[in-house]
Design a protein that fits this description.
The protein has helices spanning 2-34, 39-42, 202-210, 369-376, 384-391; strands spanning 36-38, 55-62, 76-80, 83-87, 94-98, 103-107, 122-125, 131-134, 138-142, 148-153, 162-167, 170-174, 183-188, 194-199, 221-223, 226-231, 236-240, 246-253, 275-276, 281-282, 286-292, 317-323, 328-331, 356-357, 362-367, 399-405. With 410 residues, it is α+β, with helices and mostly antiparallel strands. Helix 4 crosses helix 5 (384-391).
Amino acid sequence: MNTMMNSKTLFIFFAAISILIACSQKNTLIDKQKKTIDVYGCIGNERPISLSEIAEEIEYIPLETSVNSVISNPADIILSNDLIYIKGRLTDPIMVFDKSGKFIRSVDRKGRSSEEYESIVSLDIDNDGIICIESTQKITEYKADGTFIRNIFKNKDAGYRGFAKLNDNFYMFSSALGINMINSYSATDSESNILWNHPFTPDETDILKTHPRAEMFKRPYRFKDKIMIAGGVWDYILSVNDKLEIDTAYFFNYGRFKLTKDNVKDLASTRNIITRQSDILESNRYLFLKYNIGNIAKNNGTTNSAEGVAKHQNLPLMHLYFDKQTGITSSLEPDPSKQWGFIDDFHNGPTIWPVSISDSNHMIAFVPALTFKEAFSGKDTNSKYAQMANSLSDNDNPVVIIVKLKNLSL
């Protein structure tokens, strides 16, 4: 009798364990599915997407044009602590404007002294408003007014293709293409000591040996209290905190168009391969990504170049965004003028695609003054932006666009 009771108890126990394991596996699968960016599933499913789908409001800000504030080639725009920072070419000064577009100052410390930089490879503004300028051999930090703070010299093994600063003693670097074939990312302290390395996978190494530029656009970025990096052959995104605790934040699905060591040789010719075309941009709720999809492309369109001038060739691109709340990936269709981006259904303005995301959860974009004028010409002359457009000259500084994005719902 006791033996039968014990057997029955054991059966119930193991049955319960089996159910718990099955539920756990199911929940893990559901969790992964909700964190998977379905690039493959977006192919052929592009659609026009209005800005109101992801945003709450939008503001256009013409940047003051004067002898001291002319911007010729905007390559990056950062909004931080209510200031707008414009990075141009490698040797251009950094231009600083307030949120009304008024020119505040330029930061130009180019030179060869210990407190200067030779060129601007990339720019970051940290959470305290410190200007961090990456040049070939170091990160040079300045106060907002351009006062020198310190240099962070790069460890020779940490690469120099991009960086992200988490705090005053934690910097993440992506490795130089074709030079360091061991680690794709390295974290260092302010004294250039290596804290952590993220090695290339065997597949990545094989791909880079065949095509050294195949893994571009893997620059790390800061999101809240973590650094985000791309892992594998764009297979996933990892988050790394200052305690070196690592988690897989997102996965990618490229289906049969995934870049592999077997098809990388086709990158230089006609191909059916998905490759990253820009860095990842992340807000509280969304991720924004751009891909080159070669012959797979259903729609070609034009896009704004680093100089802010529309390129008039057809580009086989795919612009998509991922909604963390729903787990849905959506792909944008070019507008009727073949311009990529979100349709401004707030003010019927130009099509918008982000160049950066601020820590305050704003999408930052820009258009040339001429594009802004064309978008609002012939419209209600009493409207704010029509009057603004009429006050601009064709060759004035760009118009910065600040979009307040939606947040995650609790």
